Amino acid sequence: MSYHGSAWNKWDLHVHTPASIQHSYGGAEDVWERFLLDLEKLPPEFKVIGINDYIFLDGYKRVRDEKNHGRLPNIELLLPVVELRLDKFGGSGTQLKRVNFHVIFSDELSADVIQHQFLSALQQSYQLSPEYDHFRANWGAVPTRDSVAELGRLIIESVPVDKRRDFGPPLFEGFSNLCFPFSAVQSALDKPLFKDKFITAVGRAEWAEVKWDDNTIA
After folding, report:
1. Phi, psi (degrees; rounded to nearest 5) at 183
2. Is the Cα dihedral 191, 21, 40, 64 positive or negative?
3. Could you please report the per-residue DSSP string of 123-192?
4. In angstroms, what CA-CA distances link 17 with 53, 110, 143?
5. What pTM was estimated for this model as a whole?
6. Which residues lie below 8 Å from residue 126, measured CB to CB, with a gap of 6+?
7. How crowded is residue 16: how many other Cβ atoms within 10 Å of its Cβ?
8. At 114, phi and psi to the nearest 5?
9. 56 to 8, 46, 60, 99, 196: CA distances (angstroms)
10. What is d(CA 42, CA 89) in angstroms, rounded to the nearest whole number?
11. Nearest residue to 174 (alpha-carbon basis) of 15, 60, 52, 54
12. What is the DSSP code (8-state) at residue 69?
């Protein structure tokens, strides 16, 4: 009988796809093929990938479908990850930023279940950045890819023309000014079907920016 010691694999749980709200893959026609090839060329110790396209699951569905059809044979496990901005701030002093909160779901949960039972439960709980909260009356939509882009368009068009170059694409600006109460996220996850099927995380860079002193520890 032969014995093997511990097997150490690498996991990357923060991989954005060309379907992400923000990514750096460009807009070429073969962008998805290049993305998949890059994953297939990863060093052999990479075995688990978390697909994280913010509040939408299109990229995860695409990658999972590609794997089901024979792509990514080197990746043993794909996990759906939802990243959203909370109503909480990290940092200190004048360097405050919204906390990006990550929910890493088990692959035992389908994308449809996550969409309908988690993301849909948050739809009525969203908040807008204070300076753009007056758009709620004109926007007030359920957050979808199209509606979030429309929110971004309203935000960009509200500033002087010479300042608009400082903004990103409408979809990104809409998402950047959309946040969710932490209590609503906790409530949406507090369902029997999610029990023991998710973990939550905050990005390392954001965590490092939190200053644990008397003024900001709360």
Report:
1. -65, -35
2. positive
3. TTS-EE-GGGGGGGTT------HHHHHHHHHHHHHTS-GGGGGGS--HHHHHHHTEEB-HHHHHHHH-SG
4. 7, 18, 20
5. 0.83
6. 143, 178, 179, 180
7. 19
8. -65, -40
9. 31, 24, 9, 18, 22
10. 35
11. 54
12. T
For 79, counting Cβ atoms within 10 Å of its Cβ (0-12 exposed, 13-18 middle, 19+ buried), the class is: buried
CA atoms of 161 and 28, how far apart (whole Å): 29
Q: Which residue has the tokens 């405050």?
A: 96
- 37 — phi, psi (to 5°)? -60, -40
Contact 55, 151 (CB under 8 A): no
Q: Report the run of H or E that residue 94 belongs to, with start and end.
A: none
| 84's tokens | 């959203």
pLDDT of the chain along its 218 residues, tens only? 777 788 889 999 999 999 998 888 887 789 999 999 999 999 999 999 999 999 999 999 999 999 999 999 999 999 999 998 887 666 555 555 677 899 999 999 999 999 999 998 887 777 777 777 777 666 766 778 888 888 889 889 888 888 888 888 898 888 888 888 889 999 999 999 999 999 999 877 666 666 666 555 55
Report the largest interatomic distance among the alpha carbons of the chain, rounded to a whole angstrom. 74
